Amino acid sequence: TGACKASSSCNEIATINAIALATSAIATVVNPTMSAVAYRISTVLFHSGISHVDVQRLNRLGICMSSDSVINLHENMGENFDYAAKKWKKEIEENNSMLLFVMEIEGKMLNCSNDDMHLDTTLNLDEDSLKA
Question: What are the sequence ranges of the domains in the chain?
Answer without folding.
Answer: 8-78, 81-114
